[in-house]
Amino acid sequence: MTSPGTTLPKHSPGAEKPDIADALARTIPAPAAKRARPRLRALDGLRLIAALMVAAYHYGGRDGEITEAWGSSPQLQFPTAHNWFAYGCLGVQIFFVISGFVICMSGWGRPLRSFFASRVSRLFPSYWAAIILVTAVFALPVVTYEAVAPSDALVNLTMLQQPLGVDRVLGVCWTLWAELRFYALFALFVVLPGASRARVILFCAVWTLAAAVAEGANEPLLDLVLMPEYAPFFIGGIGIYLVHRDRRDLTAWGIVGVSWLIGQHYAVSRLWHAPNPDFFSYRTSFGIIAVVTAGFAAVLLIALGALHRVDWQWLTVAGALTYPFYLVHEHLGWVTVAALHRGLGLPSYATFALTIGAMLALAWLLNRFVEERLTPVIRTGLLTARK
Question: Quick one: CA dihedral 343, 344, 349, 351, positive or negative?
Fold first, then answer.
């Protein structure tokens, strides 16, 4: 039986009989091509905001090596702003929430080999360039900061320097070590068996409970693997991605809520202290909770489509610059601040702004001439390597 308006091809006696499968193929419309997932440009913008928060903390929200660059404590350079800059370290927690969202999104439906290739090709090109660049700059006679030993610098190229107890070339690389452990857990328990809603929810629930047990057990090995202090931020980002897939998913909302509750606890316990003149600056517990909440809320609003109007194309560029900027801004920022402020005598705020601009320009160069050239080569090589 044929549907109305459908005519099977005619044939004369002796002609070849029509292929039934071919006839049916002509009567059934082809499925629509799968639409590419739209890019969440607002998330790129949030990445850059988090990176700028961390930079503000490193330049004006803490003491340490930056004091040598300024010639005095940043507390004197920024009498009022240094208290605000001190909250910038929480940009790392916001990064972890974003990472949970993005890794769950990119790993869903992807085979393990493809997931591994995408992560390696994304992380290492700019990282290698930053290691080489910072090591070379710190080796210059005019730079007063001490470079790490050559052997340690070579180990840094593996991104495993922290667990090996090797001096770090980049101060921010401790966050990459946390990211690597998250990727490994997600790859092993979600990507390898195949991502599904049930499996992702089980992963979030088991990791949350295991991290709490690790904290209570005070066992270094469990802490190393399960990262109780940072787990709720990664898990919260995963929960937000589940909300992005289905905003009516009450379990996903529960994951986000529990992760926020635990995450703000760790942020306050690690960063709050009673008012003390011996400390560089004072962060209130309310301020810490507010920043953590704002980070969760921003990613959640993006996931729900509330910021869909924030779709400017330049945000894609901003997102591309975030990672290389994050890698180079701290150590090379010390050198730039010293050259501009102590060398040229520029005011503090002008030095601050110009240093941020210089690091963004360097990040653009790394993206343009390192990432854009090496990332596809590494990804293709890993995907086409012999099994």
Answer: negative
CB 234 within 8 A of CB 100: yes
Please give the C-alpha separations between residue 34 and each of 31, 38, 361, in angstroms, as whole numbers.
9, 12, 37
* 30: its two tokens: 């082809």
Sort 386 into a burial class: Cβ within 10 Å, 0-12 / 13-18 / 19+.
Answer: exposed
Question: CA of 66: how far to CAs of 133, 312, 348, in Å?
Answer: 19, 35, 13
Spatial distance between the Cα atoms of 25 and 8, rounded to a whole number of angstroms: 11
Q: Which two tokens stand for residue 293?
A: 């909440």
Q: How far apart are CA 256 and CA 264, in angstroms?
A: 12
Are residues 207 and 235 in contact, defined by beta-carbon separation less than 8 angstroms?
Answer: yes
Are 307 and 43 spatial neighbours (Cβ–Cβ below 8 Å)?
A: no
Going by the DSSP 8-state scheme, the letter that residue 307 receives in this structure is T
Tens digit of each residue's pLDDT, the chain (387 residues)? 444 444 444 444 444 444 444 443 444 444 443 445 667 899 999 999 999 999 999 999 999 999 999 999 999 999 999 999 999 999 999 999 999 999 999 999 999 999 999 999 999 999 999 999 999 999 999 998 989 999 999 999 999 999 999 999 999 999 999 999 999 999 999 999 999 999 999 999 999 999 999 999 999 999 999 999 999 999 999 999 999 999 999 999 999 999 999 999 999 999 998 888 778 888 999 999 999 999 999 999 999 999 988 889 899 999 999 999 999 999 999 999 999 999 999 999 999 999 999 999 999 999 999 999 999 999 999 999 665
Q: Show the CA angle centred on residue 225, arms to residues 210 and 229, nearest 5°.
A: 70
What span, in angstroms and rounded, lies between the C-alpha atoms of 160 and 180? 9
